[in-house]
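Structure record:
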Amino acid sequence: MSTTTLNKPITNLQGTWELSNGHKMPYLGLGVWKAEDGEEVIHAVKWALEAGYRHIDTAKAYENEEGVGKGIKESGIPREELFLTSKLWNSDQGYESTLEAFDKTLKRLDTDYLDLYLIHWPVEGKYKDTWRALEKLYKDGKIKAIGVSNFLEHQLRDLMQDAEINPMVDQLEFHPWLVQKDLQDFCATHNIQYEAWSPLMQGKAFKNETLKQLGEKYGKSPAHIVLRWDLQNGVVTIPKSTSKDHIISNAEIFDFELSEEDMQTINALDKHERIGPDPDNFDF
């Protein structure tokens, strides 16, 4: 089944959307937050790649980059067929320290480039120098695309004021309780791909009556409804799981399409409620 939202086709698990620089990003991926380094994350990555995923999202802060790298190697899937993301941690922000941290991330992942590297949080007074380092790494060909995570509109505007290259991605908390439509619109206007973390509200999606009812209507789980809603909103999504069954199940969202009415029903669940930290008020 194929549908188009925001001029973006949704076809299958290996389908991609094009970033502002032309690099193709698979719109469904595996997130590995809280996946333990070693066997747990190695298995999760291998199961995802076996199931047809081609997008893996990690971060220095997850402390599992080595396991992700091993999972990729053991899967036998050629590196160039994969989209690999990592993120720079807050304590490494700054120009020189970013360059050093990036090299260490590459070593842990056992790869010579990243498809996407993100500034994990907008550390005030540091993210502009950090961004200059990302621009250098991008120009040097070590990263195919550069972006940010947890940047709100005013932080994006501030960054872009002095940037040579605009962020290509902004990875944000995004789910039916936190839609941030104005921020979505701002990103769309500036050709910044919106990406969701915590799409399933850390499990709360399964308990929501509206999502359960929609699941019954479409013969799907609440998770399927939310992940499909993400994609039809033009939002890349990376549900986290270390369970083989859940990893496979999360990808079963390409054989149905939410009606416009049901999309609006989910949009209306928005209550501006965060599950994670506030990008305007974090202390780590």
